[in-house]
Amino acid sequence: MMNKKTAVVMFNLGGPDCLDAVQPFLFNLFYDPAIITLPNPFRWLIAKSISRKRAPIARAIYGKIGNKSPILQETEKQRIALEKTLNSQGNGEYKCFVFMRYWHPLAQQIVEEVKTYQPDQIILLPLYPQYSITTTGTGIIEWHKWAKKSNLTTPYRVIKDYPDHIFYVQTIADMICQKLLTLNDKSEYRLLLSAHGLPKKTIEAGDVYQIQVEMTCEAIMRELKEYNMEYVICYQSRVGPLEWIGPSTDDEIERAGLDHKKIIMVPVAFVSEHSETLVELDIEYKELAIEKNVQDYIRINTVGDQQKFIDGLAKLVLEN
Question: Which candidate, 70, 97, 284, 287, has a CA 20 to 30 Å from the CA of 113?
Fold first, then answer.
């Protein structure tokens, strides 16, 4: 059917669009049963307490990047690029939509927009390369819940993950290569391949995230094998009292200082810039590197709307 209509629903974590939105955004995050697994009313009480305590810290973080998260604007660029690419490459008509898990536009709203579009099929496309119940999983659950409530019966498929797909890995490797070509002595540098961390208990319960992060990193290093670079896989953004997977990115920055190594910081689990890259990697970890006598600190950008990445997402959609 040549004029078949396909809705491609891209989804990500989301972020507050103003400082007043910080606390409700945090509440939505911690109230998710995929994040805090306790039953109600305990989960509600804990989410209220954590979001209230963390809000001033988080507001200070967003205050450093324009008083809001840029993730929606960044995702919008990806949406426009993907829709254009799909309509130039595929048969039929493609319309891309974006929903965010913890702040607007939420799944409830986008389900209604997709319903109005009346597609023949729906593809759910997570903007998380590696699968976790805490990211892709909870996004799919949320979509399904609101689609059911809205009686949106159009069949949908899910692109579950793409951790070592060549389009993703090569986009990152290309950016690292461009940077390496500008360096006189590459042996002075260590690549820190940094991903968002998770509590150990989530991984021990069977979550594949850590395995898939390692798949991504190993695939990147295969692309860079001619450079024979030293590298380490590490995890950032730890919060709360639970034990998290490691090694932690801040520990690895300190170790690089002790080893007299310069750092190339590579985000491997984020596809767009937001507080974890613009504040944590660019400001906080850079300050830590200076404090720990790291002589140079380079940060590689996220893949964003680079055409190789967008073409790869389009290929995944067309294959599904």
Answer: 70
- Partners of 248 in the β-ladder: 235
Contact 62, 22 (CB under 8 A): yes
In this structure, the number of other CB atoms found within 10 A of the CB of residue 98 comes to: 20
In a domain, 282, yes or no: yes
Query: DSSP characters for 17-30?
Result: SSGGGHHHHHHHHH
Domain residues for the domain of 283 are 166-299
- DSSP calls for 6-55: EEEEEEE----SSGGGHHHHHHHHHHSTTTS-PPTTHHHHHHHHHHHHHH
292 shares a domain with 172 = yes
Domains identified in the chain, total number: 2
Asked if residue 131 is part of any domain, the answer here is no
Does the pLDDT at position 61 exceed 60? Answer: yes
Q: What are the tens digits of pLDDT across the range 242-251?
A: 899 999 999 9
The domain spanning residue 255 has which CATH number?
Answer: 3.40.50.1400
* Residue 172 covered by a domain: yes
* Backbone angle region of 188, left / alpha / beta, with phi > 0 → left and psi within -120 to 50 → alpha: alpha
Among 44, 63, 82, which residue terminates a domain? 63
- Find the angle CA(126)-CA(129)-CA(134) to the nearest 5 degrees: 65
> Hey, what are 16's tokens?
């507050």
User: What is the rounded distance in angstroms from the CA atom of residue 237 to the CA atom of residue 250?
Assistant: 10
- What percentage of the chain's residues is helix, strand, coil (to nearest 5)? 50, 15, 35
DSSP annotation of 106 = P
pLDDT in tens, 255-294: 999 999 999 999 999 999 999 999 999 999 999 999 999 9
Tens digit of each residue's pLDDT (9 = 90 or more) over 81-106: 999 999 999 889 999 999 999 999 99
Domain membership of residue 99 (yes or no) is no
| Cis peptide upstream of residue 33 (ω within 30 degrees of 0) | no
